[in-house]
Amino acid sequence: MSQPTTTTDRRIERRAAPPPVLRLKGIERHFREGAGRLSILDGAELAVAPGELVALAAPSGAGKSTLLHIAGLLEKPDKGEVLIDEVPVSVASDAERTAIRRMKIGFVYQFHHLLPEFSALENVMMPQLIRGLSKPEAARRAKELLSYMRLGDRIQHRPSELSGGEQQRVAIARAVANAPRLLLADEPTGNLDPTTAHYVFDALAALVRASGLAALIVTHNMELAERMDRRITLQAGKVVEL
Ligand SMILES: Nc1ncnc2c1ncn2[C@@H]1O[C@H](COP(=O)(O)OP(=O)(O)OP(=O)(O)O)[C@@H](O)[C@H]1O
């Protein structure tokens, strides 16, 4: 597509920008520390657009996991608002938050947490079966995702029969099996050697961009962070662009 050339073109393009999938507004999270108060998040603001990969890098204890848990509706902020697809979730009941989480959010952790007694295919089918999809439907989507992750010839392997990089790619496929809108990842390649980390990241990034997911990824790997669309950190409880 050609670049916009007139003010009108630019205005149209700006108006057409899709709304963020994740928006955090004025998030505060405090913990009690002795007689005092430890402010971990203190007015954190963030927006992540569809198809965007945002790297979150900050020192240990800065509040990365806390931010991820709040964005993933696993934890409630003391103050502020989380919006998923522009819908505020603070007014939602616990049951509604769980439903939104199941439908709209996928998680990837440093350690894959795959079920050891099930095959790669069954692991990726699992969230879909829980959601109520039929076995053939779940299997079709799981095979498609595993092929996309270049694991088409490994679908019957159990996690213990897969390499670390393969296990993480299965975990990524599982995280997006229910076609979430938001992917939250906590050091998804932290347990892998550098070459494998890049390979797994390539697969994750391709999937995010192809499916228009919004992705917030905690990483200490600055080489990978450089390959994302934006890099943010946490300073004094606020989100700061790097
Ligand atoms: N439930 C809690 N009660 C008290 N303090 C807590 C609680 N949860 C987290 N904290 C504190 O909040 C701070 C931020 O924790 P968090 O796990 O978010 O940091 P992090 O940036 O993810 O660190 P790391 O990189 O080491 O995982 C830490 O000092 C932690 O001890």
UniProtKB/TrEMBL annotation:
Keywords: ATP-binding, Cell inner membrane, Cell membrane, Lipoprotein, Membrane, Nucleotide-binding, Translocase, Transport. The keyword Cell inner membrane applies. One of its GO terms (cellular component) is membrane protein complex. Residues 22-242 form the ABC transporter domain. Pfam families: ABC_tran. GO terms for molecular function: ATP binding; ATP hydrolysis activity; transmembrane transporter activity. One of its GO terms (biological process) is lipoprotein localization to outer membrane. InterPro entries: AAA+_ATPase, ABC_transporter-like_ATP-bd, ABC_transporter-like_CS, ABC_transpr_LolD-like, MacB-like_ATP-bd, P-loop_NTPase. It comes from the Bacteria. SUPFAM superfamilies: P-loop containing nucleoside triphosphate hydrolases (SSF52540). Gene3D superfamilies: P-loop containing nucleotide triphosphate hydrolases. Belongs to the ABC transporter superfamily. Macrolide exporter (TC 3.A.1.122) family. PANTHER family: IMPORT ATP-BINDING PROTEIN, LIPOPROTEIN-RELEASING SYSTEM ATP-BINDING PROTEIN LOLD. This is Lipoprotein-releasing system ATP-binding protein. It comes from Kaistia soli DSM 19436.
